[in-house]
Hints:
Layout: H1 2-10, E1 17-19, E2 22-25, H2 27-30, H3 39-50, E3 55-58, H4 60-66, E4 75-78, H5 82-88, E5 92-95, E6 101-106, E7 109-115, H6 142-147, E8 156-159, E9 164-167, H7 171-176, E10 179-180, H8 186-192, H9 195-207, E11 210-211, H10 213-216, H11 219-222, H12 231-242, H13 247-256, H14 265-270, H15 274-292, H16 299-320, H17 325-343, H18 351-361, H19 371-376, H20 381-393, H21 399-410, H22 413-419
Parallel strand pairs: 4-7, 10-11
Antiparallel strand pairs: 1-2, 2-9, 3-4, 3-8, 5-6, 6-7, 8-9
Helix pairs in contact: 9-12, 9-13, 15-16, 16-17, 16-18, 17-18, 18-20, 20-21
Bound molecules: adenosine-5'-triphosphate and magnesium ion (MG).
The site of magnesium ion (MG) has 5 residues, from loops.
Amino acid sequence: MIRKFLKxxxxxxxxxxxxxxxxxxxxxxxxxxxxxxxxGALKVTDGLQAAGFKAYVVGGAVRDLLLKRIPKDxxxxxxxxxxxxxxxxxxxxxxxxxxxxxxxxxxxxxxEVSTFRSMIEAVDAQTDEHGRLLRDNQFGDQEQxxxxxxxxxxxxxxxxxxxxxxxxxxxxxxxxxxVLRMIxxxxxxxxxxxxxxLRAVRLSAKLGMQIYSDTAKPIFALKGLxxxxxxxxxxxxxxxxxxxxxxxxxxxxxxxxDLHHGLLPLLDxxxxxxxxxxxxxxxxxxxxxxxxxxxxxxxxxxxxxLLWHEVLAAWNIRVEQGERPVGAMHAAMDEVLGRQxxxxxxxxxxxxxMKEIWLLQQRxxxxxxxxxxxxxxxxxxxxxxxxxxLRCASGEVEEELGLWWDEFQSANAERQAEMLQPEQAGDKKxxxxxxxxxxxxxxxx
Length: 445
Ligand code: ATP
Ligand code: MG
């Protein structure tokens, strides 16, 4: 019926054609217009095509546009070698060791250009004893490049000049049906790269796509293979989940598929404590919301939230053992960060900010004298305050404390003075050493 209608309106062009082993879906059917492609990606595909190369927008961007979502970035695939791409675009550089890519810069915008990769079977693939690919760096043609991608929805090629989509694996139908289906035998593909299991979770949670039954089935038996993946790559993928704007769905899905164990050891611990779970889910929901409002989120803030209840637990034990609160906090932070490092490689570069956020928490309860003013001047006040609000919302501290700081930070001087609490008897006043009188010396003539 629809076909008939489209045929009447658009004539012959509204038909899926084929070219070699791929289907060619015309604009009239898929509706993704050249205008929807970023300026940079168009410059790159036009430039490459003008120089006689093939060039397509590929991967997540085509999928997202078909799903009527705004792509995060635009990747381009071409048959030009990295050196040939590099020569065509003045502001570009070759990156990557395992597989060389070219980044072409347009102001803030970076377009990632990859040369068609070959199918693994075509080269003598190097794998470890579990089937994990150690090498995957041979150039190939467009069809081979499609076959080495993970899901059918991620293997569509869009040509901005003709506005046609090239589809080798029924990715167009799958995307339309919101199905995430692995290209090739799923078990082999997970063995080649176990991170694909996490990608399935992330993409289905983020895009509301159903993981096709055959694609989901082997995950349960193969999840142990994730132990075999380098820590830095796991962390990368976990960060992508946490910062996907759909972190809560990702975490639910991970737990549903029993994939969270070992992957996020911190979640294993935290999600089992009622207070911790509430706090973490609030932090994640807060992150998702910020992202949907296009606000920035800092990974350090997120890690600080994920680990907070571990820090609190360690701190409590030390305080009960008679350590002083501030010293106990320093020791608790080091203890938790140390333990965490061994499990999930949270980069050291986040430590300083995480510690600042945690340390400042103790100072929010001090609401007398000059202390609140000094806290307001801390460069990390905003993040620490946002963190405090999460603690309030989770029921860990009184709501009133958050409301007090909300008012205090924007009140005028008079109101601030009124709000200050009286010094308590236990508040130790810092005794200043009496200043030595300056010695007056004669200024030499
Ligand atoms: P996102 O919206 O998160 O960017 P994406 O699908 O674009 O999702 P990228 O990591 O940007 O994800 O990867 C770009 C493309 O590269 C994918 O669409 C897919 O075709 C291919 N790809 C990425 N990771 C893998 C993998 N582990 N195995 C096979 N193909 C992959
Ligand atoms: Mg992408």
